[in-house]
Amino acid sequence: MTAGGPSVVVIDYGSGNLRSAERALAEVGANVVVTSDMAAARDADGVVLPGVGAFAACMAGIHDVGADDVVRQRVEAGHPVLGICVGMQVMYDGGREHGIRTPGIGVLSGNVVQLEADVLPHMGWDTVVPPPDSALFAGVEDERFYFVHSYAARAHDPSDAAGETVSEHGSRFVAAVESGVISATQFHPEKSGAAGLRLLKNWVAVVAARS
Amino acid sequence: MAVAVRVIPCLDVDAGRVVKGINFTALRDAGDPVELARTYDAEGADELVFLDITASSASRETTYDVVRRTAEQVFIPLTVGGGVRSVDDVDRLLRAGADKVGVNTAAIARPELLSEIATRFGNQVLVLSVDARRVTDGTTTASGYEVTTHGGRQGTGIDAVEWAARGQELGIGEILLNSMDADGTQNGFDLAMIEAVRAVVSVPVIASGGAGQVEHFSPAVAVGADAVLAASVFHFGTLRIGAVKESLRANGYEVR
Fold first, then answer.
1. What pTM was computed for the model?
2. How many domains does chain A have?
3. Of the partner residues B4, B46, B124, the one whose CB lies closest to the CB of residue A148
4. What is the tens place of the pLDDT at every residue in B168-194?
5. CATH (domain of A168)
6. Would residue B12 show up in a list of annotated catalytic residues for this protein?
7. Which residues of A are less than 8 Å from B73 in CB distance?
8. Of B91, B90, B72, B69, which is closest to residue B81 (Cα–Cα)?
9. Catalytic residue among B52, B131, B181, B226
10. Residue ranges making up the domain that contains A155
11. Catalytic position from the list A22, A79, A85, A122
12. DSSP string covering B205-254, please?
């Protein structure tokens, strides 16, 4: 059934459980390959940048395989990229963990900082507020998604928050972004049950429309 | 709106089959883990925990296979614990498809294991599993609770509340707090113990041990649990996940 779907590369740079992302994307019709081969990532209809753990460690792994350059090139060329969790965070200008700032890929403006909340990590199913014209959240605007993180990008003022989906844990943070060809989620759609699958299906449809 | 209280079924897995006994002895077979995982997902489970109680290393290969098949079919978070002794064990489980790994006995013997895992994979993968009971037989701890090993059969003399705090210092992302006194009794959670641990940690706390009725879950959340876990009452259909969530919702807690 996936034969006709768009090609999607999940970039493997040694971060966490990629099996779920691979299987979830296949489930919603993508032709998925998990690889550290950047030539494949450059040519794919869509690229998923995953990531769990520390910002600096992920950024180092991403740089080692050359994924930072590929993400920049794809954004410039107008080819879709989806960042998940720390894979979203590293698309910003930088991230500060334990007092140390690490530069990110820089295709989203802003910085990733620690959440201010009584209980961290922010772990579990939480609500989100997507923008009215969201393609990613079509049909799942009122669902909960699975988060596990202690850091996030601070939400912009609602007036200039085009493309930002907001959630709250202690304070407001960016739960997802849709900015041109960049899509990103702080939560794990591949771990968010039926709602997450629907969101991935929406993204795969965006990818197919552009391929 | 806030993050929902998680309701988590725990599956004890031995050589690829789900088992659960009263107080961890007298095991009863309750089915295929992948099938049960799918069922719980459909019933609204927020996460799944597999506790691998397989003794032999040969049978542990079966566990990796079960994790792999589950992760391919069930798109909710999966924690796997039991017999995790090294950074390599964690790596293998994550590669098989686990999202989080529970560490218990090996960390008691060598606490640095926790910081090694957290440094390599991040604190969000690391669940400290604490099997605790009220002290007995002349043992004393500051909190009155001690950590046990071997399914509650051996006391360690280590203060369970201090151990939870130490775990947080070493980089864990969550605590699975299991009362060995309450486990299998179905008389309710050990609320005083949950409250004592909540007071000293800021990571999420999963309350485990003692759930027998839907009314047992809200009090655990009231004293600070972020998630509630049960095993046999779900496996044998005594309680349904939906009913537990309805009860939590009726008591003013957000659920998915």
1. 0.95
2. 1
3. B124
4. 999 999 999 999 999 989 999 999 999
5. 3.40.50.880
6. yes
7. 23
8. B90
9. B131
10. 7-210
11. A85
12. EEEES---SGGGHHHHHHTT-SEEEESHHHHTTSS-HHHHHHHHHHTT--
